[in-house]
Amino acid sequence: MTKSLRRRMRVFVVVVILTVLVLTARLAWLQIYQYDHYTAKAEGNRLRDLPILATRGEIKDRTGQILATNRPGYTVSLLGLDRQKAADVIRYLSEILAIEEEEIREKIAKQQFKSYAPIQIATDVSPEIVAQLEERRLDLPGVIYETQPVREYPRQSVAAHILGYVGVIRENQYQELKREGYRFTDIIGQSGLEATYEKYLRGQDGTLRVETNRFGNRVRELERINPVPGNTLHLTLDLQLQEIAENALAQVIAELKESGNDQVGKGAVVALDPSTGGILALVSYPAYNPNTFYQDYNEIRDNPDKPEINKAIQGTYPIGSTFKPVGAMAALEEGSITEKTHISCGGVKTFFGSDRRRCYGYTAHGALNVVGALQKSCNIFFYEMGYRLGGERLGQYAKDFGFGDLVGLTDIRGEVPGLINSPETRSDFMPGDVLSAAIGQGHAITPLQLANYGAMLANGGIHYRPHLVKEITDYTGQVIFVQEPEILKKLDYEQKHWEIIHRGLEAVTEPGGTGSSLRTLPVKVAGKTGSAEAGPNKISHSLFVGYAPSEAPEIALAVVVENGGLGGDAAVPTAKLIFEAYYGEDIPEGNEEM
Amino acid sequence: MFDRRLLRNLDWLLLLTMMAIFAISLIIITSTTVNFTGDPLYFTKRHAIRFGAGFIMLIIILNLDYTYLYRFAPYIYIANMILLVAVLFFGSDSGGAQRWIDLKFFELQPSEFAKLAIIISLARHLTDQEGNFDSFFSAVPFFLHVAIPMGLIFRQPDLGTSIVFIVILIGMLFMSGVKVKHLAAYLGLGLAAGIPLLWFNLKDYQKMRLIIFTDPYRDPLNDGYQIIQSLIAVGSGGLYGKGLFAEGTQNHLGFLLEQHTDFIFSAYAEETGFIGAVILLFLFLVLILRIIRVASQARDTFGTLVCIGIATMMAFHVLINVGMTIGIMPVTGLPLPFVSYGGSSLLMNMMAIGVVLNIGMRRQKYMF
Fold first, then answer.
1. Which among A211, A235, A259 is the end of a domain?
2. By CB count within 10 A, which of A264, A519, A566, B100 is most buried?
3. Domain of residue A225, CATH code
4. Interchain contact A217–B (C-beta under 8 A)
């Protein structure tokens, strides 16, 4: 071999050695330097975490009665379906579950590379159908049944607007919540307490970690982390009172319809505990059934009475004569009158030179002091008060009582502020407009504001934050949150003025008062009736605000019946039914004692 | 059977290295195919039987003086051409390529044997030239020598194997004394003419493999999949590997494809880690360097050139196959010698080692 060839041979050897060195260097880079990176990728390849749904927390009333709970629902799924038998299985399933074959195929196709996870074909399947499927088990390889908690409201539509409903997460919600671990198939609270307390009710889903192969088939289960059930909400709500109020309102509206009122159909009732702000009852009529909200959706949407709207916090109404205690308190506090000041009512009176105003039906009440004026709901008296006070001062007192602004309910969403008819809010407010404002026209209020106002009249001017949730306990029963009564505002009015108004409101339910039909109740009620003009050719709205027992108030109640007529036509009968039923149960006991 | 003096000259280290590589192969083939069929050793057994057959071939080759190879080189070349033409007509289809002739008991892949056939016939052709390469055009006949079988293989189509021939040709021309500047010019001209020509003659999937090589994540579910999964397998193997037979998740859960054939090195590197991978590469280095050593000691130019051809072939296979699994070479489907499951490749490589041992054994001229 020549010298030149020997040199070439050495070149050859060097090339071979370099080749091996390059490969070794690359291997070192991949296997040592980038080991962690590729290990993570290898784990990502093979490990899949499947959710185990947590049971949603329950919702209970103040006495522990269940308002929202869960029942086991059967989910029919496919896991490890044999390709060759797929056609038959899909046909059987389609037949028994009454689902189009195409739909099943789509679901399978959607999960093509995720066959380690069960493909949900139908949720909340009845036990009868599951039994049918079980009988044909041999024809249905790869079909599995899982139980998943399904939300249930055992009282159906009772307290629907408070509880709300749950539904599949919407696209925009998912975008917002996915960082918190929500999946696009999750069921979440969509309304009411279910929505506001989603975070507490949800619980923590568990995971089942499975190992999968390239086809996404489950090879084995590796680890199971059990879910943590959601927390229980304990409400201030009194289920008994809630049911009574719902039934009373429904009954009164039905009776009005029967008697020829073709405009009535909507209404709201709110009952507060005047010493805490706790909501005892909150009714919006008509309601829906949260168990079937989505099935009934078209019907609900097309109903002209708008069942999905919570009228107790979202409906705004002119307040009418129930506003008169505001004017009375303002006049007393501002020194415009004293208890002894009498105003003479001749049925008609002219203000500002030419503005002729009248009492309802031109009734001449004669000389009345503030107590009598409240009892008779004398317009002339309160026109005079408005005239003496002026729009600005009157508006300030309305504001003090919580009108024109949010009352502060945060447990359920959607509260609206309403509007006070005053120069502050209306640039076109003329001096003469104070007359209408003084008898409650032109203001827009919510039933909740009305109830809060009732509570402030009952407790001497303390504005508590209205709330529904009293306490939250975790699944072991340990208390994790307590809502203490929260004072938002305390009015610094003279005690004797509160007493004067109180006497006026008590007089309303006494013989000669506008709410005298309430005198027969087993409990002494103080209150104020109202009829608010609803517009041309419209039957007026019927309102009532009050509290009972008047000497030591336990309940502040507001009733609004849209187009229900005069206060005494709808709101007062509703209040009467409520107080009757609620306090009536004590009667047998009381009778025995007597 | 053997002359004692011949046996004294047998390169035992070369033979043992080959055996060691095969031993590794048996283990990793078992680990990659354990779940393929009901019999966990089905592939292992077949691989071992083929090794046995290969060993018999090797011993037969050792017994014949390699001058027979010189003498029969033209017939070997012609027989090879016949097989390559035959596979185009009678070849069985697999994944769009016709590469195999079904002999019932054996799937013959003529392109594998073609490598050895071309090395032997080219070696004779070059020997007969007697180092006369002064003219630039003196190498043209050798291009034709290789181009014809290469063209047939390219038609199958099998780009990787076609390129093997070019590399073998370059190696053997280099060691025949062709001027380096001429070699560089051939290479330059070849690339300038070949690349455009090649591109228009490649099947779409072959083009995709070449594109994907530069960026596997371009199509991570299809064409890039194999590369990505291979990188994950190798990288996650780490220094010590995940362990054989059950621990390599990329291998056993099926994320790796062709894990017992083209991508067997990925499975091996996953389960035995950097240490295992380096041991195997070291064995290949020893094997190739021993072949080069035989080449340098051969008694004649023919022997030297045959050994150089075989060394080039094996080195290139290792580079391309291992390079492919670690993402520095395109996916071409060249097997890893002795390790990848596949009978033709194993037999051919063992026969090649037989030829090398033969040349090494007869490095001294004896009088019989």
1. A235
2. A264
3. 3.90.1310.10
4. no
Q: Do B274 and A23 touch (CB under 8 A)?
A: no
Structure tokens at A578: 């409520």
Interchain contact, A31 vs B235, CB within 8 Å = yes
Query: CA angle at residue A449 from A448 to A453, to 5 degrees?
Result: 115
Question: Is B175's CB within 8 Å of A8's CB?
Answer: yes
Inter-CA distances, A278 with A194, A370, A547, Å: 18, 31, 14
Outline where B64-179 has alpha helix (H).
67-90, 110-129, 140-154, 159-174
Residues of B in contact with A9 (CB under 8 A): 175, 292, 295-296
My answer on whether A214 and A245 are in the same domain is no
For the domain that residue A490 is a member of, what is the CATH number? Answer: 3.40.710.10
Interface of B with A (CB under 8 A): 171, 174-175, 177, 229, 231-239, 249-250, 253-255, 269, 273-274, 277-278, 281-282, 284-285, 288-289, 292, 295-296, 304, 308, 311, 315, 318-319, 322-323, 326-328
Task: Report angle CA A575, A580, A585 to the nearest 5 degrees.
Answer: 145
Question: What confidence tens digit (pLDDT) does each residue in A63-87 have?
Answer: 999 999 998 888 888 877 777 778 8
Binary contact (A23, B249; C-beta < 8 A): no
Least Cα distance to B78 among B139, B148, B130 occurs for B148
Interchain CB contact of A168 with B (< 8 Å): no
Instruction: Flag if B236 and A8 touch (Cβ within 8 Å).
Output: no
Q: Is residue A438 part of a domain?
A: yes
DSSP A31: I
Contact (CB, 8 A) for A440 and A385 = no
Q: Which of A77, A321, A377, A542 is catalytic?
A: A321
Alpha carbon distance A135, B195 (integer Å)? 66
Q: How far is the alpha carbon of B278 from chain A, nearest alpha carbon, in Å?
A: 7
Asked if A46's CB is within 8 angstroms of B292's CB, the reply is no
Phi-psi region of B237 (alpha: psi -120 to 50; beta: other; left: phi over 0): alpha
What is the residue extent of each domain of chain B?
4-361
The string over A397-422, giving b where at least 16 C-beta atoms fall within 10 Å of a residue's C-beta and e elsewhere, is bbbbbbbbeebbbebbeebbebbbbb
CB contact under 8 A, B231 and A38: yes
The whole-angstrom distance between B59's CA and the closest CA on chain A is: 28
Find the DSSP H helices in A432-517: 433-438, 447-459, 495-508
Query: Are A280 and A186 found together in one domain?
Result: no
Q: Which of A235, A257, A278 is the last residue of a domain?
A: A235
Amino acid (one-letter) located at A213 = N
Structural domain boundaries, residue A373: 239-593
Tokens of A281: 């009852």
Contacts of B311 in chain A (CB under 8 A): 12, 16
| pLDDT band, very low/low/confident/very high, at A111 (cuts 50, 70, 90) | confident
Q: What is the ipTM of this complex?
A: 0.92
Distance from CA of B100 to the nearest CA of A (A): 29
Residue showing tokens 């033409």: B85
> Are A299 and A200 in a shared domain?
no
Q: Domain check: are A261 and A221 in the same one?
A: no
pLDDT over 50 at B361, yes or no? yes
pLDDT value, residue A257: 93
Mutation target vs A (from B36, B127, B182, B249; most A CBs, 10 A cutoff): B249
Q: Give yes or no: residues A225 and A362 share one domain.
A: no
Confidence of residue B96 (pLDDT cuts 50, 70, 90): low
Encode pLDDT of A375-433 as tens digits. 999 999 999 999 999 999 999 999 999 999 999 999 999 999 999 999 999 889 888 89
Whether the predicted pLDDT of A589 surpasses 80:
no
